[in-house]
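task queued by scheduler; priority normal; single chain, no ligands, no partner chains; default sampling; output format set to structure tokens
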Amino acid sequence: MLPRILASLLACTVALSWEGAAANEAECTFGEKVIRFSHVTTPVGHPKGRAAAALAERVNAEFQGDLCMIVHPNAELYSDNEELWAAMRRGDVQMAAPSLAKLSGFAKGFQVFDLPFMFRDMIHVIDFTYSDPAQDLLKSFDDKGLTGLAYWMNGMRQLSANRPLAGPGDIRGLTFRIQGSPVERAYYDLLGATAQKMAFSEVYGALESGAIDGQENSWSNIYTKKFYTQQHSINETNHSVIAYALVVSTDFWQALDPDLSARLDRVIQEVTHEYNGFAFQLDEVNRAKVIESDTPVRRIRADEIRDWRETLLPVWDKFAAEIGDDLISAASAN
């Protein structure tokens, strides 16, 4: 397990710039194994998009003649996870970075990342991802055709709505968009709200039309997708985390020469460390931009967090057996 990495994240030297493009197909040469990387976010100004572009830059520079990576952002290929999984099993796509909230169908343990108020901040989350239980979880679904390689960060979730939310009771009767995690649905049910599963690309329009009253997202997502322009206020709850699992087709990975896969894994870990630090910085930058927009942002006091946490503890009890004591203990211990 790595030591706590706050100092290295704060000292991260990744420039806060959005340039960087992946190879396009014409640049792949005969004999190179093509890695198609499909994701749903913008390649510009988003932590996952920028990390994917950076990984492609490294791969295409350092593995010429062996590997060529092509990144397909903005749901260019697939926006639905079921379609993506089918494409990966067919070999049409080799790599993806789905949200952890959408992986409980592969391994129930991923629900630990959605437990409300489990993690203090992103540093806490990142430290946990290097623990043995979290690494074991990442490797737990090879038999389903996917191999987990790394955890990629986005940011802590903040809660926004079309009316002020002074406490847990103010959520009752509202409709919130969720990614689809059973844990998310359970805590909105407990609070008397309606949880509406919805694709990320549909959230802005649903907020604008009033189809949903609120949403929960990282500062980077709230800013880059302009969700803040359609909300009355944002509560800085930091109640759970948005993060991703970098996954590769198991068939593709196992077919690589062992030396090649070891070299590629080393590059992936280096990019992961660097761009998780970038995500940490970017979240703070985008938080400041939202505040500068004059959208009301309410920082939750420590006593209010205790109230939220105690109100939502039944959700922990409900999912403890599915998640497993080892994962909950490891996450709580950091």
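post-processing summary
- The CA atoms of residues 149 and 246 lie 6 Å apart.
- The longest helix spans residues 258-292.
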